[in-house]
Design brief:
CATH topology of the largest domain in chain A: Neuraminidase
Largest sheet of chain B: 4 strands, mixed
Oligomer: heterodimer
Order of helices and strands of chain B: EHEHEHEHE
Radius of gyration of chain B: 24 Å
CATH superfamily of the largest domain in chain A: TolB, C-terminal domain
Number of strands of chain B: 5
CATH superfamily of one domain in chain B: OmpA-like domain
Shape of chain A: elongated
Helix content of chain B: 25-40%
Strand content of chain B: 15-25%
Radius of gyration of chain A: 23 Å
CATH architecture of one domain in chain B: 2-Layer Sandwich
Shape of chain B: globular
Number of helices of chain A: 3
Structural class of chain B: alpha+beta
Strand order of the largest sheet of chain B: 2-5-3-4
Distance between the termini of chain A: 18 Å
CATH topology of one domain in chain B: 60s Ribosomal Protein L30, Chain: A
Helix content of chain A: under 10%
Largest sheet of chain A: 7 strands, mixed
């Protein structure tokens, strides 16, 4: 798709300093957030005739992004007392207070040919002032969804003080066909399921794609040769090549280092699976574990100093942390059942994992010392968590039971709230959530 | 606009997908895919012969048995499995023109990565047993499909028991060996 990429210009007016800090339109995202913040998004002004449709579409998507977090609740347009007929007119705060809308987002949209200009403002209704400054985005009409996501990200960010996650993409495995002959292909989409593009055909089984830190490449496991090997795919031109790994019968479960220059993965030889690291620049391989047990699913800490992984060295799958260059590992999972697929959070404080216990699967999080384990989901088969760019949401695969079982992707807040399916046509598994786009 | 006069203007290159057709590969979904068709179900389908002919792959697959089964989360060869593998070893020694890829599999009750590793462990256990019975290791390769290619699709132990398997898939190799 990058062949056909349009390069867009985005002029971004930065928010002013500290004005936001004094207003009460503020949400601290904690486990205790129960009451969503209310907001209104009157349809953005179309500043010329050509902008009508896209102005309406953008307003709806901004509202959908925010409401979709579960942290915000939209006040419907039918409740409005005031109409906003101009982007520059003073806001009638009393009219918005009267319908109990804590936040108000106004905007204006201009279309010239394929150029799209979006301006927006965020108001703290009960404080009677603007939160941050007006901002202007310039892009193309084709890219209108990204413009809406950027408006929503800026709003989320001003109110919560944290980064957003709406203008991001997810790479995953698109599935079709019966359970005993499932066809799998790599696909990429926006975080909300829009703009789906396939990255491979279904001529070979592909598994567990992983984004590079800046989203330019994807590592995945392919059965092209009949033996699991790791491929590196360039998202821009969809070219791919096999990763030169250390010598082994099977290579799988890859992840990039945070600088994107190294890959950690599992290699199997003679029934034994261990963790290795390969430097993409020098081509050098380092073996990081050497135990007769299964060591797999490595994930680096954000500072690059440690690796969390799973091992059955104790007899069952459990989670361990070791130094990034190998060495003594300490076990961090001690609850009932088995633990696998650990993923270090972008903030560094938590590890997300898959837990299997008493015939059920769960997605959970724990602190990196193993304390405060919290199970977020429960089903016949949940697995493979991936973190949103801001570390507040986890996406994962859920497979249903039985002969007709299919896989879909779900997301859930790390509080365990706001569980919902990610809308994708057909089966979908193994999501990897990419970074916020520039 | 007055409010924007003190703002910094940044220029960012925005990459966006302008394509409307999501599929650059022509096919819709898996209809024309051959995902895992190369022996993932251990069918040995390409090789001819009769099950009555002891030198045929059919005899190997059906009369001797091309697969052994495993208990939950183990790679130990069972007594029944040893009998089958003894037959496989004998056949492979008699029919030296054949090579084999041993494919390990797991049931769906496990995470993807772990099941790949577990399948490899199972396939390797079969390889080691065959080698201990005199089959040259150079004729045997191992791979694992983890839980990706079940042969039974129900979510009950009756199906899981058949999916926890290692299948010896023959290929005729006199040309290459």
């Amino acid at each position: 798709m990058m062949k056909r990429l349009l390069t867009l210009l985005l002029a971004l007016m930065l928010a002013g300093p500290a004005l936001a800090q004094s207003g009460p339109l503020r949400l601290t995202i904690t486990d205790g957030v129960i009451e969503p913040i209310t907001f209104a998004v009157p349809t953005f002004q179309a500043e010329n005739g050509a902008a009508g449709q896209v102005a309406a579409d953008i307003s709806r998507l901004v509202a959908q992004d925010l409401a979709g977090t579960g942290l915000f609740r939209e006040v419907p347009a039918t409740a409005f007392i005031s109409q906003v007929s101009s982007f520059t007119q003073p806001v009638a705060y009393a009219d918005w207070r009267a319908i109990n809308s804590q936040g108000l987002i106004t905007g204006a949209v201009t279309v010239n040919g394929n150029q799209l200009v979006v301006k927006f403002r965020l108001y703290d209704v009960f404080s009677g002032q603007e939160l941050g400054q007006g901002q202007q985005l310039v892009g193309t009409v084709d890219g209108w969804r990204r413009m809406a996501h950027k408006v929503a990200d800026a709003t989320y960010s001003r109110i919560t003080g944290e980064g957003g996650y709406f203008d991001s993409r997810v790479v995953f495995v698109s599935e079709s066909g019966p359970k005993d002959n499932r066809q799998k292909r790599l696909a990429i989409m926006d975080y909300d399921g829009a703009n789906l593009q396939f990255l491979t055909d279904s001529s070979a089984i592909v598994l567990a794609p992983r984004f590079s830190p800046n989203g330019d490449r994807v590592l995945y496991t392919s059965f092209e040769s009949g033996f699991p090997r790791i491929n590196v795919l360039n998202v821009g031109n969809v070219s791919r090549q096999q990763l030169g790994t250390a010598q082994g019968e099977m290579a799988f479960s890859p992840r990039f280092s945070r600088d994107g220059r190294q890959v950690i993965y599992s290699l199997s030889n003679g029934g034994n699976t261990d963790i290795y690291r390969t430097d993409l620049g020098t081509g050098q391989h380092v073996r990081l574990t050497s135990a007769p047990s299964i060591e797999t699913a490595p994930s680096l800490s954000p500072d690059g100093s440690q690796i969390v992984f799973e091992s059955d060295r104790s007899g069952t799958q459990q989670l361990y942390i070791m130094p990034a260059n190998g060495g003594e590992a300490r076990r961090i999972s001690f609850g009932d059942g088995r633990y696998g697929t650990p993923v270090w959070s972008p903030r560094g404080d938590l590890v997300a994992f898959t837990k299997q216990n008493a015939g059920r699967f769960h997605i959970g999080v724990m602190r990196t010392d193993g304390s405060e384990e919290r199970l977020l989901t429960s089903s016949f088969l949940d697995e493979g968590p991936t973190w949103s760019p801001n570390g507040r949401v986890i996406m994962f695969s859920r497979e249903t039971q039985g002969a007709g079982g299919t896989s879909s992707m779900y997301s859930v807040d790390i509080s365990g709230r706001n569980l919902k399916a990610v809308p994708v046509q057909g089966g979908a598994s193994d999501p990897s959530w990419g970074p916020l786009q520039p | 606009m007055k409010m924007m006069t003190r703002a910094t203007v940044l220029l960012l290159a925005l990459a966006t997908a302008a394509c409307t057709n999501p599929d650059r590969f022509g096919g819709a979904g898996g209809a024309d895919g051959a995902n895992g068709a190369n022996g993932a179900n251990g069918a040995n389908g390409g090789l001819a012969g009769s099950a009555n002919d002891p030198a045929s792959p059919q005899f190997f697959n059906q009369t001797i048995g091309d697969r052994v089964l495993f208990a939950v989360d183990t790679s130990t060869i069972t007594p029944t499995g040893k009998t089958i593998l003894d037959g496989q070893a004998q056949w492979l020694q008699t029919n030296a023109d054949y090579r084999a890829v041993i494919e390990g599999h797991a049931d769906e009750q496990g995470t993807r990565e772990y099941n790949l590793a577990l399948g490899q462990r199972r396939a390797n256990a079969v390889r080691e047993y065959l080698v201990s019975r005199g089959v040259p290791s150079s004729r045997l390769q191992v791979t694992s499909f983890g839980k990706e290619r079940p042969i039974e699709v129900c979510s009950e132990e009756s199906c899981y028991a058949k999916n926890r398997r290692a299948v010896t898939v023959l290929s005729f190799s006199s040309i290459t060996s």
